[in-house]
Amino acid sequence: MTNGRRILPDSISQRTRAVHGGSRRSQYGEVSEAIFLTQGFVYDSAEAAEARFIEAGEDEFVYARYGNPTVAMFEDRIAALEGTEDAFATASGMAAVNGALTSMLKADDHVVSSRALFGSCLYILEEVLTRYGVEVTFVDGTDLDQWRAAIRPDTKAVFFESLSNPTLEVIDLRAVSDMAHAVGALVIADNVFATPVLQRSADLGADVIVYSATKHIDGQGRCLGGVICGTRPFIRKVVEPYLKHTGGALSPFNAWVMLKSLETMDLRVRAQAETAGRVAGALASLPGLTRVIYPFRPDHPQHDLARAQMQAGGTVVSFEVAGGRDAAFRLLNALRIVLISNNLGDAKSIITHPATTTHQRLSEDKRAALGISDGLLRLSVGLEDADDLIADLTQAATAMQDGGPPR
């Protein structure tokens, strides 16, 4: 123990790091991490305050917008899980995406991004960055030739979702990272769908990894949060100044919730992924479904790549029904266990219709280009019994075929 911080052996596994990593104990020796619900901190003298504002020490804090002991524990633990030097926790997943990109870019910089992205990510790239003079080139993320053609000597960053939302396209992290690094560009990967449990993007070449901690990290539908993982210089010299002055910090209470959730994330995600694989197989045999998308299914276009990069196929299954929006709504309204919600990574199974929720801002042509049809549904598999979920989806598909559930 050093200054209340527990030093762990380098050889321990991810699961053990998720339980013990980053712990700071007060003089009381508490087992469960403490919540420091304070905005500010007291100094022994005016000279001490002056010195801390010039440069705070490793376990010294100035203001909760800059940092907090509970938040620091969460940052240290998620960085240990992801295999990066440091991390900065944010108020939401979108604050993490915006912070990672905006903190490093300026007018006339060039970014290459995959086009299959969550609607809010697209907004930041298409509307926010371009408004301030950043040039953004979009590519089909699965086509390495398009990446190769788009990345230029002056490209500053590439951005992608390692598994795209909601069509589950798989990006070849190593290949894209090699192309970006050849011109000195940073690789920023949104790894929400894969999670640090199933894929450590830093090991595959990503420089910066962002998460919506709202999803699998919390995993129980309680709190908003996000995190940016990367090298210590990038986090502390680029990201931290931007976020501490623009106000995107994570609250100490939410950080504490995320800390406790990390203790069980490995168990939850692996169980959810196992069930998702079973559900995907069952969906493929149901009437009225025209397509099932799951990275570990042999019919997935990037099946071999997914198995090379990931330990399991993830917790999300997308599928398409014949009959468009009306048929999709009939299936949704017939479900008895699976909940209709636009979140994912929850202990409860939840489903959404992307064309009218998460991606409704996009034009019909843009949705079509991304493979988001009016019949597409995105299912986030929870911790329920697999047989119960399959039975619920089966009866809902039957009701869809029969014209919908009884009113």
Structural notes for this entry:
The chain has 407 residues and is an alpha/beta fold. It folds into two domains: 248 residues, 3-Layer(aba) Sandwich (Aspartate Aminotransferase, domain 2), CATH 3.40.640.10; 136 residues, Aspartate Aminotransferase, domain 1, CATH 3.90.1150.10. 40% of the residues lie in helices and 14% in strands. It is built from 14 helices and twelve strands. The strands form two sheets. Strands 1-7-6-5-4-2-3 form a seven-stranded mixed sheet, with helices on both faces. The chain has a five-stranded mixed sheet with strand order 8-9-12-11-10. α1 packs antiparallel against α10, α4 packs parallel to α5 and α10 crosses α14. The longest helix is centred in the middle third of the chain and has 32 residues. It is globular and about 75 Å long. The N and C termini lie far apart (62 Å). The model has no long low-confidence stretch (mean pLDDT 93).
